[in-house]
Amino acid sequence: MGQTIAEKIIGAHLIEGKMIPGETIAIRIDQTLTQDATGTMTYLQFETMNLDRVKTDLSVSYVDHNTLQEDWKNMDDHRYLQSVAAKYGIWFSRPGNGICHQVHLERFGLPGKTLLGSDSHTPTGGGLGMLAIGAGGLDVAVAMGGGAFYLVMPKIIGVKLSGSLKSGVSAKDIILEVLRRETVKGGVGAVYEYFGSGVDALSIPQRATVTNMGAELGATSSVFPSDEQTRAYLADRGRGDGWIPLKADEDAQYDHVVEIDLSNLTPLAAQPHSPDNISPVADLAGIPVNQVVIGSCTNSSIDDLAAVAEMMKGKTVHPNVSAGIAPGSRATLLAADKAGILGELIRAGFRILESACGPCIGMGFAPKSEGVSLRTFNRNFKGRSGTADAKVYLVSPETAAAAAVTGVITDPCTMPFTKLDTRTFMLEGIRLAGDDMFIPPLTVEEAKKVTIERGPNIKPCPVPVPINDSAEFPVILKAGDNITTDDIAPAGAKVLPLRSNIPEISKFIFSPIDPQFWKRAQEAGSSIVVGGSNYGQGSSREHAALAPMYLGIKIVLTKSFARIHKANLINFGILPLVFKNADDYDKISQGDVLAIKDIHAFLSGADESIEIFNKTKDETYEALLQAEKRDRAILKAGGLIPYTGSGK
Ligand code: MIC
Ligand code: SF4
Q1: Ligand 1 test: best mutation among 65, 499, 565, most atoms within 8 Å of CB?
Q2: pTM of structure
Q3: Share of the chain above pLDDT 90, in %
Q4: Which of 16, 131, 134, 438 ranks highest by number of CB atoms within 10 Å?
């Protein structure tokens, strides 16, 4: 039987297990990436492995999230990361060099390779035909140490593209259409694989927009073929010799196929507060807009910037709109300068933001109270912008630019513009940027002399305590469906600087949905959190597991989990249980006391389900642990660090 691209890459990297969807497999990782907000914990964990050097082909540490530097904390993190990179043979991308996923695509991505990143948008690399997967920092640390990455063999969903995009419709609208059809839960346990005649004309940055936002489907990854576009892209960046052709076999089997005729697509928007709350832009036309932001790892390429600049030609940002632009990388910024794009945007009234994550993660440029913000980003969870009651719409650069001109949501197809050919400008940007803002790995001898800089913001990573065999726990929170990791461990200018300090960051756990949570957790000692379906969607931040572990949460009982968060819970020894009968969720109230017995035998695989006795309501429920042998053993040991320390 023929194979899909994902199956070919997995097959070539398989270390353990069978490639049967749903079975646990282990794969070899060629490349890793980290960013500063998850990187400090990743490297603190890597340090505990007592290795001299990373064992991957390539590992890169980026600084792009925490760049506000309101005080010494961010910079302490940067210095720690730079010195760790020097010590262990890791490339360091200095702050200002750009957003990790954009820079990795431009500088390091290669078809056929595996990439594991401590950021959920790592699948951006799939635009180049890589199998790029987001994971918790601890999994990335293990991969850097040469360990395999364990995952559930995904099912492969095909996305067949035909036709071509009309002017005013862009790659963002493709992924918004996939989200409309598949939802934020549709991709759990799946890889989306793109094929069909519509693929050929899509540039690598366009493909990367699509694979990046595949994260919002809950997918393990998304991947495009490696073809002539890929070859030309790599050749332009001096990596032509790394090109290999890669496509699915004619008779490859997909779990199901989503068919999209690009010619019929119209501009779309994800309305507040979920990336799958999709509506045609035309239906939203006329809604007053207060803010427009172009950027983030999804839509910050030179072509995105060029489209906006072309649409702004001779026009000024509407007086009611505050507009900003954050180019994806330093090379893009230089190219935008050479092409006159930057000048046009400055003239039109755009505020030029740093080449970093910035407003996407609530680091500045927050909208006004109850403000409507149109962003080319990938997440519009409530409060993520920094303004709790803001209404954030996710749109294409063209839709954002149209609103910047008119001050209201406007279908960009009503404002035709000429597309600028940016290739030569981008080549110039790449040439000018060079590798100046990268620090390459040191030699083994040089690395030995490096002392790691540990400022006061760098606190050790707490180690979990294994769960008792029997226990009683109060339910200290009952949460609903689609709880995001932004709900669990918020980001933003106030909290993000505490990413290297678990005791401090733990004070903010669940604060967006329940400011009293930390106090209750302190009082309870050990406790349970109950949630609905797709619990933990969104970011890969392991702080959403690590800090709850630190606060004594032993079990999270839900209807279902998002992939990365479930893996993070297991890594930090928290039992991710699911209701056998989803209706039992309704029977539990916050404050109920749940008693559980024989947990160790259950973790050893003795029973399929475990009984949970609600002492407050005098009822019994059954819960399942949808985890295989290795994960059960990790949980029994109290987490991946104690498990690995025990010689496994
Ligand atoms: C995000 O987009 O939410 C982040 C910030 O990039 C996260 C990582 C983090 O929380 O540091 C992600 O997507 O994994
Ligand atoms: Fe940065 Fe936003 Fe991309 Fe996350 S989604 S990596 S915060 S730009």
Answers
A1: 65
A2: 0.98
A3: 97
A4: 131
